[in-house]
Specification:
The complex is a heterodimer of chains A (588) and B (499).
Chain A lengths: L1 H24 L1 H10 L5 H9 L5 E4 L6 E4 L3 H24 L6 H20 L3 H19 L5 H32 L4 H10 L3 H16 L7 H8 L2 H22 L8 H23 L4 H25 L4 H31 L2 H19 L5 H11 L11 H25 L12 H21 L9 H32 L5 H4 L9 H39 L3 H13 L1 H18 L1
Antiparallel strand pairs in A: 1-2
Chain B lengths: L5 H18 L6 H27 L4 E8 L2 E7 L1 H24 L6 H20 L3 H19 L5 H32 L18 H18 L8 H5 L4 H9 L2 H17 L1 H7 L2 H20 L4 H22 L2 H32 L10 H4 L1 H15 L5 H15 L4 H26 L19 H19 L7 H13 L3
Antiparallel strand pairs in B: 1-2
Helix pairs in contact in B: 1-2, 1-4, 2-3, 3-4, 3-9, 3-14, 3-19, 4-5, 5-6, 5-10, 6-7, 7-10, 9-14, 10-11, 10-13, 12-13, 12-18, 13-14, 14-16, 14-17, 14-19, 14-20, 16-18, 16-19, 17-18, 17-19
Classes of the chains: A mainly alpha (588), B mainly alpha (499).
């Protein structure tokens, strides 16, 4: 019994935010709960730091039979940084939303999404994972459309459509996985999936279902719109915490460590690399810092996708690759959220604070690029060490491509810092920026420290070779960026004013491919809708009409009279009676 | 003395007697009428609970009365009967409370509640019938008891809807009668038997059996709103909200769906039906109805009409699960009998609340209505998400088992139907939720009946909240003993696939 207390308390603490959301609705508890709401993830965070329970809890009566708890180091790390991000984003939101409308509504969705996000990390079986995942996805809609402008509502629409598609893909994947493995626990499902007949279809659906959340290239269309639309604290948890739910879903459901699936490894590696570069290219053309960060997320998730590809190729190296991916997720989550909150801090700051905030922002920015001694260097080094497990033709290529992506990322974060450096009229200068600054500063500090804290001991990490390997991409990237900046400054001086970079590179609209796709789809859907709307009843009527008409030839009353006259002749009447009588007798 | 055989009779009588008494009551005897109604509902609920416990522990409840030699009235409570009776008893109780609130102060209430009780009597009778003959009697009684409820308002449009309803259902009843008589002439028995009673007939009767199956399904399909026999359902939604709620959730459409389950499993037996080759077309028809109903629902602006087409679509899930003819799909179909009932009755209650409180009938009028009626819309949201199949609400469990069952029976196309229908469900439910929760409310509602600090009357608010909680609970606690899912497993195990 005692060993149940630890996992049980964890589960209760994870459900707590949802209960708080409920308490927000009642008039009697509203005011007190509103004060508590930003702190809702803190208990989970404290528990997972100081007393991480190591057992899971069987709940056979819940859903289709559930198991909740933390199984291994990966789970613990995921829960740790997710809870940390929700806590700090919650604290940030306190000041950010201080004088805003719809604060209650925001917190209701915030708390529900929080329970979803934290809960899915505890879920060790299909049905409970699916429940928490759905809760998170649908509740986040309320966060995305918080500001209710038409652009935001459009983003919300795209978001919810992608959520529904993802949910359906996952539904089929999970039903098929359960059918193939006859189990709902993840470990058994993975083992069953390794031999399943319909393995490829299941993996494809898992790839799509979670890929939408993880922003896989081609499925990423909703992501830039959503991150731009959502208020800052929501963008921070979306980009830092919730995006990793997709990654975790892959780790849970794909048969990693069971079998080598070389074809799928190829797909993950290729699409991951494509996203890594595509995100940077499109991101560079963006003007809005939040949109740029969204594309950077697509790019970074690409690298994690690649990592999953490595794990698919090399089941034997699975534990090491998993740690590398998890730490990468932790590093990216913390730093990306720090950058998002930073955008909010800078926008709210007065002129004198702006400068040092800007300088502090370089810390997460450079970490993302992977400068020596940063968390970026650590996780990139860890991942690069695993590229030896890749399929043979990738072994030499992958380290080079990863370095190239580091160059690209350096340019992207440089561009981000340049955008932020431009003095902008502080439109939404808050009265008190302290409430914004200290959660953000805490996030920056933890983004520096945490990855190192949990890093496995790697002897070669500080060797000259690895330092050089992590230095040159950043240097090269910085040089390229510097060259472009100097060139624009030169042009500006020459022409007098304004022909800056933007006039050479047009902005690719956020959501890139979405624009033509939605244009085509809207037309198509509208046509089909209106066609069906007119045709469906018409078909029915025409069928009915045809039936009626085919009977119209026979005048019913005339037919009846004729039958009547036949019956009136006594002989036929008698015959009929006889038949009926015989029938009755035979029945009895 | 052994009371067991009398309990099914008492279950039927517990609504029949109050119904007959209410007919004789004067219009203004509100309190006595309410007491009679609630007393009957609670007694029925208690008796049903008693039977559930008994059956779980192997008791046998059966009452036989011979009408003619060879034709008996049989009331018997097996696990499947009990599932349906429990649903009816629970939802009748809730709907009675709702109807008392809904009809407060309106005329002809004695007539209404009298027929209301008769309607439930018929439904319970349908559920407890031990043979096809008894089933037929109660099935026809149901038709006749519902008609006065549909036309209760007495308006032109109500009478027209009622006429359509009567034409469709009487026609269906005639087909059912024909099929039953024919079947009786072949087999000499109509007793519902696990694994069917027609399998003993030789191959020479195969064509006759196929035609009988078609007749029976066509007769039952009218009430179950199977395409193309569904036309009456969207018209019958002119009835008052409690009637629509009961009609769509338990009484009429469920009687049809329940009958189809009976015919497939206890008349023909699923193996015989499959070997006759009649289950595959039935599954195809159900699948078509699912998609067709959803497509039609998208285009309705009238809230109740949209819900009605949604019923057309959702009830066919039950038939689909039955017709896939595999144990797991059966569980999905049977459990949806309960799940759909809970979710749909919630949605209709909410639609009724909007109409009663703010006179909102159209979806286009629902902008921002959640701010005015948060509890109603919260219940509606649970119902709608459940219909889409979002976990952990009941509909998710049904879809999960239907999907698993389709895989097990190697009928993979069913998964596509499930996905397509979920997508369409999302397409017609999510816009409603969006309007209600995220759009700005208009400066004034079509009408605003004041209920003080509450959003609406207690009697109107409580029922949807309770049924929504049930819809959530039976999904979340699906693996608890006595949950609908576990009970459906028991049914499949004990009745349909008994070795």
């Amino acid at each position: 019994m005692t060993e149940m207390i630890a996992p049980l308390s964890l589960v209760i603490l994870v459900i707590l935010p949802a209960l708080l959301a409920l308490a927000l609705v009642f008039r009697a508890t509203h005011a007190a709960t509103l004060q508590l709401a930003p702190w809702a993830a803190l208990p989970v965070l404290l528990l997972v730091i100081f007393a991480p329970p190591s057992e899971t809890m069987q709940l056979p009566w819940l859903l289709l039979g559930s198991e909740l708890g933390l199984n291994d180091e990966t789970d613990r790390l995921f829960l740790l940084f997710t809870a940390l991000l929700w806590t700090l984003a919650g604290l940030f939101s306190r000041a950010y939303l201080a004088d805003q409308l719809r604060r209650t509504a925001f917190y209701v969705y915030f708390l529900l999404a929080m329970t979803g996000n934290l809960g899915l990390i505890l879920a060790q079986d299909l049905s409970s994972f699916y429940v928490f995942f759905a809760l998170m996805s649908f509740a986040s809609y309320g966060l995305v459309v918080h500001e209710r402008t038409s652009a935001v509502l459009y983003a919300g629409r795209v978001y919810i459509i992608m959520v529904v598609i993802g949910e359906l893909a996952l539904f089929v994947a999970m039903v098929m996985a359960m059918g193939a493995s006859n189990a709902t626990g993840f470990a058994a499902v993975r083992a069953g999936l390794a031999q399943a007949e319909s393995q490829d279809l299941i993996i494809l659906l898992v790839f799509i279902g979670f890929g939408i959340k993880a922003g896989v290239i081609g499925l990423h269309l909703w992501l830039p719109l959503t991150y731009t639309a959502a208020p800052i604290p929501a963008s921070a948890v979306l980009s830092g915490a919730m995006i990793n739910a997709g990654l975790l879903g892959w780790l849970r459901l794909l048969p990693l460590g069971e079998v080598a699936l070389l074809n799928w490894a190829e797909v993950f590696i290729l699409l991951g690399l494509a996203a890594a570069f595509y995100g940077v290219v499109v991101g560079l053309t963006q003007r809005d810092p939040k949109t740029l960060l969204a594309y950077s997320s697509i790019s970074q998730m690409g690298i994690m996708t690649l990592g999953v590809g490595l794990a698919l190729a090399a089941p034997n190296a699975n534990p090491l690759i998993l740690i590398a991916i998890t730490l990468y997720a932790l590093h990216h989550g913390l730093n990306k959220s720090a950058l998002f909150l930073g955008v909010g801090v800078i926008a709210a700051c007065h002129e004198h604070q702006r400068r040092w905030v800007w300088w502090l922002l370089w810390i997460p920015a450079l970490a993302l690029a992977g400068v020596p001694l940063s968390s970026g260097m650590l996780v990139k080094g860890l991942l690069k060490a695993q590229t030896t497990h890749a399929p043979e033709h990738w072994v030499t290529l992958l380290p080079m491509l990863l370095s190239a992506s580091a160059v690209a990322t350096t340019i992207l974060v440089g561009r981000f810092m340049v955008i932020l450096a431009k003095p902008k009229a502080a439109t939404s200068a808050h009265d008190s920026t302290t409430g914004l600054i200290w959660p953000w500063a805490m996030l920056v500090v933890s983004s520096v420290a945490l990855p190192w804290w949990f890093a496995p001991a790697i002897p070669k990490l500080f060797s000259a070779a690895s330092v050089i390997a992590s230095t040159w991409p950043v240097l090269l990237g910085s040089l390229l960026l510097l060259a472009v900046l100097l060139w624009t400054a030169y042009r500006r001086r020459q022409r007098g004013q304004e022909p800056i970079i933007e006039s050479y590179v047009p902005q690719i609209p956020p959501g890139d491919l979405l624009v033509p796709i939605s244009y085509l789809l809207t037309g198509l859907v509208n046509t089909v809708y209106s066609w069906l709307n007119t045709q469906l009843p018409r078909w029915r009527d025409s069928i009915l009409m045809r039936i009626k008409r085919s009977y119209a030839h026979h005048d019913v009353t005339q037919v009846l009279t004729r039958i009547e006259t036949v019956l009136l002749r006594w002989r036929s009447g008698l015959l009929l009676l006889l038949i009926v009588g015989l029938l009755l007798i035979s029945m009895i | 003395m052994n009371w067991d055989p009398w309990i099914p009779v008492l279950v039927v009588a517990s609504s029949l007697l109050p119904g007959l008494l209410i007919f004789s009551l004067a219009e203004e005897r509100v309190r006595l009428r309410t007491v009679l109604n609630l007393l009957g509902a609670f007694i029925k609920f208690g008796l049903v609970g008693l039977m559930a416990w008994g059956i779980y522990n192997g008791h046998h409840y059966e009452m036989r009365v011979a009408l003619l030699p060879g034709l008996e009235l049989v009331l018997r409570a097996g696990p499947l009967s009990l599932l349906f009776v429990t649903l009816s008893a629970l939802l009748w109780l809730v709907t009675t409370i709702y109807a008392i609130g809904y009809l407060e102060g309106s005329p002809h209430r004695s007539r209404f509640f009298g027929f209301f009780s008769l309607c439930v009597t018929a439904t319970v009778g349908v559920a407890l019938s031990g043979n096809l003959f008894t089933f037929l009697l109660f099935y026809e009684l149901l038709t006749l008891a519902t008609y006065p409820l549909v036309v209760h308002r007495g308006t032109q449009i109500a009478r027209q809807g009622g006429r359509t309803y009567l034409i469709y259902t009487l026609f269906g009843g005639a087909l059912l009668l024909l099929g039953t008589v024919w079947l009786y002439s072949l087999t000499g028995t109509l007793e519902f038997t696990p694994r069917g009673f027609v399998s003993g007939l030789g191959a020479e009767h195969e064509t006759a059996l196929i035609i009988i199956f078609i007749l029976l399904i066509a007769g039952l399909g009218v009430k179950a709103a199977l395409f193309p026999l569904h036309g009456w359902l969207p018209q019958a939604m002119v009835a008052p909200a409690p009637v629509s709620a009961l009609l769509h959730a338990v009484a009429v459409v469920k009687a049809g769906a329940f009958g189809i389950i009976r015919v497939v499993y206890d008349v023909f037996g699923v193996e015989t039906a499959a070997s006759l080759g009649v289950t595959a077309p039935l599954a195809a028809l159900a699948a078509f109805t699912i998609i067709y109903g959803s497509l039609r629902a998208i285009f309705q602006d009238d809230l109740k009409r949209r819900l009605a087409f949604s019923t057309v679509s959702q009830v066919s899930y039950i038939i689909l699960g039955t017709a896939i003819a595999g144990p797991i799909a059966t569980i999905g179909g049977v459990v949806h009998l309960v799940h759909q009932g809970l979710m749909k009755i919630t949605l209709f209650f909410c639609a009724g609340n909007l109409a009663e409180t703010l006179e909102i009938h159209k979806i286009s009028e629902m902008n921002g209505v959640a701010r005015r009626m948060p509890w109603t819309m919260a219940a509606f949201t649970i119902g709608a998400f459940g219909m889409i199949g979002v976990p952990p609400i009941a509909g998710f469990i049904s879809k999960w088992y239907l999907g698993l069952g389709a895989l097990e029976a190697e009928q993979h196309w069913v998964i596509l139907v499930l996905v397509g229908s979920s997508l369409l469900n999302a397409a017609y439910f999510l816009p409603i939720l969006y309007r209600a929760w995220f759009r700005e409310p208009p400066s004034s509602w079509p009408a605003d009946h004041d209920f003080g600090r509450k959003e609406t009357a207690w009697a109107l608010l409580l029922p949807p909240v309770v049924t929504a909680a049930f819809a959530l609970g039976v999904g979340l606690l699906a693996s608890l003993p006595f949950s609908p899912l576990e009970w459906a497993k028991l049914i499949a195990e004990r009745e349909f696939y008994r070795p």
